[in-house]
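forwarding from the other thread:

> can someone predict this with zinc ion?

sure thing
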Amino acid sequence: MTDCIFCKINAILTPTEFIYKDEEMSAFYDISPKAPVHFMIIPKLHIESMDALTEQHINLIGKMMLKASTLAKEHGLKGYKVKINTGVEGGQEVFHLHIHVLGRSYK
Ligand code: 5GP
Ligand code: ZN
């Protein structure tokens, strides 16, 4: 099996541990939350980072951004931050592309 922690998460997390999952992406809570609500959206495909994106990923990344917005609404977030750390100098620790969503729920 791959050494990538997020590929492993995609493979082994039980359905209830995902906030969302389909054939292209999944979403789950960050193990070390930096905000009252902190989840990540990742592609099923192992893409290392923003730097590895090509035109073939445009549809996927668009769907992931839309999912960030949908899940933020479902969490009752009125405002939130969307963050993609890129490269070691950009603070990236896990080299499988992920979109952080950080906010506070007002539900
Ligand atoms: P990065 O710094 O690469 O943008 O973010 C990686 C994030 O993944 C960190 O916020 C870290 O807390 C989270 N993380 C690392 N390992 C795991 C894990 O095994 N499970 C979950 N849910 N989050 C993880
Ligand atoms: Zn991976």
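The beta strands are 20-21, 25-29, 37-43, 77-83, 99-105. thats all i got for now
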